[in-house]
Amino acid sequence: MSLVAVPFYQKRHKHFDQSYRNLQTRYLLDEYASKKRASTQSSTQRSLTQKSSAQRASSQTLMEATSVSSREQEQQDEHRYRSLEAAYGEAKRQRFLSELAQLEEDVSLARSHTRSTLDKYALQQTEEDQKAWEWHVFEERMRRAPEILVRLRSHTVWERMSVRLCFTVQGFPTPVVQWYKNGSLICQAGEPGKYLIESKYGVHTLQINRANFDDSATYSAVATNGHGQVSTNAAVVVKRFRGDEEPFHSVGLPIGLPLSSVIPYTHFEVQFLEKFGVTFRREGETLTLKCTMLVTPDLKRVQPRAEWYRDDVLLQESKWTKMFFGEGQASLSFSHLNKDDEGLYTLRIVSRGGVSDHSAFLFVRDADPLVTGAPGAPMDLQCLEANRDYVIVTWKPPNTTTESPVIGYFIDRCEVGTDNWVQCNDTPVRICKYPVTGLCEGRSYLFRVRAVNSAGISRPSRVSAAVAALDPADLRRLQAIHLEGEKEIVLYQDDLEGDVQIPGPPTDVHASEVSRTYVVLSWEPPSPRGKEPLMYFIEKSVVGSGTWQRVNAQAGVRSPRYAVFDLADGKSYVFRVLAANRHGLSDPSETTPPIQAQDGSVVPSAPGRVLASRNTKTSVVVQWDRPKHEEDLLGYYVDCCVAGTNQWEPCNHKPIGYNRFVVHGLTTGEQYVFRVKAVNAEGTSENSQESDAIKVQAALTVPSQPYGVTLLNCDGHSMTLGWKVPKFSGGTPILGYYVDKRQAQHKNWHGVNASPLQDRILTVEGLTEGSLYEFKITASNLAGIGQPSDPSGLFKCEAWTAPEPGPAYDLTFCEVRDTSLVVLWKAPVYSGSSPVSGYFVDFKEVDSGEWKTVKQATTPNRYLKVCDLQPGQSYVFRVRAVNASGQGKPSDASEPVLVEARPGTKEISAGVDEEGNIYLGFDCQEMTDASQFAWCKSYEEIVDEDRFRIHTEGDHSRLYFKDPDKVDVGTYSVSVSDTDGVSSSFVLDEEELERLMALSNEIKNPTIPLKSELAYEIFDKGQVRFWLQAEHLSPDANFRFVINDREVSDSEAHRIKCDKSTGLIEMVMDRFSIENEGTYTVQIHDGKAKSQSSLVLIGDAFKAVLEKAEFQRKEFLRKQGPHFAEYLHWDITEECEVRLVCKVANTKKETVFKWLKDDVLYETEKLPDLEKGICELLIPKLSKKDHGEYKATLKDDRGQDVSILEIAGKVYDDMILAMSRVCGISASPLKILCTPEGIRLQCFMKYFTEELKVTWYHKESKVSSSEHMRVGGSEGMAWLQICEPTEKDKGKYTFEIFDGKDNHHRSLDLSGQAFDEAFTEFQQLKAAAFAEKNRGKVIGGLPDVVTIMEGKTLNLTCTVFGNPEPEVVWFKNDRDIELSEHFSVKVEQAKYVSLTITGVTSEDSGKYSIHVRNKHGGEKIDVTISVYKHGEKIPDMAPPQQATPKLIPASASAQ
Fold it and tell me: Which of 303, 604, 772, 1309 fits 794 for a cystine, CB–CB 3.0-4.6 Å?
């Protein structure tokens, strides 16, 4: 029986693999397996424990009852095992059942929780649906048609003033209001900045800015909702100051965005938070136009609709544009920009609450051309009149402001589904229209166009939409026949014609388009035409010729349209068309009237007068008169140019269809001129006349409202008020202020002053004590009266009697930077019981409740620079005045100030002008007509005209110091009014003032700047040239040379000249002598400027110049004959030889060259070749014996020259070092040589001498020559002899050669096996040397040949040596000599040996040998004895020589 149970999860899902189980199941399985393993281990341990105890019990039982048999014991063990096995199975089953129960409980809880969540969500959804339905019912009850409560009123105004038309309407849903001028819809985008349309709380306003004569009209407002429509109208009359002016023709942008026909059901309030602005991009880039908005109410299921327009065309999503609306934003994304995308983009959010929109222009510049100078790509590619094999392609030409004109276009086509572009025309097409033929019926095509000019071909245009080559007339030939009921049959008209074989002739043949290069013929298909497919053949005939020529003889035309090319200029043609099918050819059609190929349209004429007017700080409105000839006009191109530069740039890159355009992206304060050209399919017109230069500034408007109305004092019957300047003056100076007042609880306002106030402080008289009053202020300028300020707080008219001062007022800020700003204020009008002694300045972050004081001590000034602020944070400030009685009432909190430096912030610069006047300058390109520069010292306006002068011109202003002195040191500041806080300051300290005064003195007392002071130059002939060079000299400049206070003039001795174009003045002296010692001066005068430069040549300085001049003169004379171009010098060859080298020049065949050493001729193997110009002398194996003076001489009839080189001292040492370098490079690795004396380390090299800088090292210690270690060398080798080496001599040995710069090393490790082998060899050599020294040997005395006469006595004597004493043996003819009276041997003192032969006979002739030997070895000498008889001639023999001994080895001697 198996104990493995099938898991529960496999009982019902056995077909599932583990990989299909969910995470929860996998977790349970893992937990189950781990618990199973743990339980198995514990049960096994318990069974083992029980088994061991059972064994002990059984053993005890066996001892007690030995009679139990072994079989009974086995039965008991088996029974016990089965019991344990059953218990284990039951425990396992119980554990599994508990885990299964827990799992079922968890699943039940999860289902219960999910069911409750779904129920809650369903209830919530039901509640929301109920609320939405109740709100819908409520809206249905509230709905009513629009009703006008306050109607429009007519106005009469002066020209250039603003007009505001207002009316009030109510209705539900909120009516949509549209404004009309003389029945034409008013569009803000048509004339940006002209109209301002607002709607707030049912009050609708139309503001006409800067009204002109053309604005005189009847204006209507139409309010519409789903339940009705109402309207109101009023007249506006604009008067002129002078009646003799012509009305200014102003035409707005012809853009009228249609009101959407489908309006969302729910009313929404839309507020734009972030808007896209005017955008500049380049072709090929990506872009997203995005607006973030707040939509109220925010419903998930119902949203307003977002619509995007380009100019007046509603956009749809395409491969080029993607739209998104949701999550509080609407965006339009471009995946690949082209000039086709340029235009005015408008986002409209449409709902029942009305339409909220925002517009901005997108400019798309040309991408970089593929070829420099090539034109931009064409745009707006369209395909018209597509047929079976024919389509007309049109496009718009690019703007060629900086490129050469376009001479034509290439049209390319590509079949959909392929990437194969085919050029349709072989030669460029001049006009922007081309008929493409040769298409395959039923296929779709894409087209693109490329422009061509003299520089090259442009990038291709954007690809057109796919066009199918199909005949649109096929649909018109379908007919529907209605049958009984709702059934109908669709038939072709051909089916009703009967059995037609040959088609009839085509009809209505005419020229639909005529140009200079082609004629497009069009006709109607024949009737009847038959069921067979038709083709057409076109024939042409020159008028009067009577002959017809088939145009398309090769292939028939399937479309009822054909372009005929290759027509002769000046000739008229008639045409006819024939239809054909497989049955035959029809009769020809009627002949067309005579047609001549000529231009159907011409290039438009240039536009008329161009006017530019101010718009914003970076844009200008340009409008122009339409051209007189505007046939088929496609639009206009506008170009701009900075005045005076003649560098034109395109303003738009796609033709605009209206004669008014807003040019954006201009530089504030810069002056521009504009020109316009018209565009049609034939090309572009001539440029219009240039407009007048206009400075880029914001247009004039009424000022904004004043703010910060503050009560400064009150005496119980009057109040003193102060207020702040409007943030924007409207572009023109503020003429004054009007103050209105009203008492609390009163509705009507009453004017305080009839004429405008110039100051911003006013005491209002005639007030009632104890009453509450509120005030509002209105500013006015040339454009009119602006909006009034918000009503002030309620001020109580009661006298101020407090001893503390009143509040400071008019807090302003300047020099706002990233971490600091300057606060300025005005002193309190009410000072209290004592004068104001100082001020505290408090600040805090916006929305923070805790005020902080900038400085704990009061500041006596009415300004303070606040530092260490947080960048990008907004702060508010207030000021508290202090007198002897204490702190007064704090001023009103200022408006929030953002601590952030404005982009392009400029600072004050200090300088000196051309006349030497010191100034502080500041530039501001953001100025308007109302802007003024305000210069201050210590933040107090400068009024001292005796010390300062202010000069302002355009956007540049300078503060001049009339008489600069130390009293002018301080802090200077400047601010520009009517700007966004443009200001700066400059600290003029004493050091800067001194620098400026020194520069001013240089300009007022000018000096001629010198490129080079007076200097001298010595020529090759020994001439001396004195010269200097000025930066610039005018033709009227004069100068003089002065030597020792005496002016010298141009003469043979002093040749003087001046090149005023380069400012070079020079004087050349041919003969410079001892009389010329002194001071040389050059004085220059050029107008008011002057300069002087001197050169002192006295004493050693003069001697040096004189010696150099004499040397150069002698050198010149020397070089007239044979001479040394390079004197003797030396180098070391690769073979370590010293080479003396010199170069000679100006030699000839007769020139004699000699080498001398110590004035003695130095013989060489061959004479040098003077024609080569190089002479060499090699000195091999340099040593001290080569010391001496070496000369090289040249001589002929023209003169002689000598070059000397002395080899001694430092020259010799340098040679040794150079040789050391060669030897060091060529040195071989160290080698070991064993000798009887010891171990020798050797290094072979090119050449060795003891004078080389060599050093031996043993274990990094320098080795000095001693008895134990001897240092030496031979001609090609350096060695180190280690005598009687021991263990201490082991280690690393290094041989070093120093060449003056580098050390050359060769190393050897004499240890281990290397030392052992060397030491063994040394021992052997030592023993051999000892044996050689002590062996037996004959020192001398025996000849090799002896001649003697018979009867004589011969005595052979020699000296022998040996240690121990050697044994001496005589042999005759290699046999021992037996001693007798005839032969006797004698040895004396163990070293003198003699052989005596008494009575020599002829038998004694032969070879005699003496053997001398001991244990170390020996040697033998052979002596040949020749005996002749008395009277015989002595034999001819060679003179006797010293006999040569022969070595006897030790082994032989031992034997």
Answer: 772
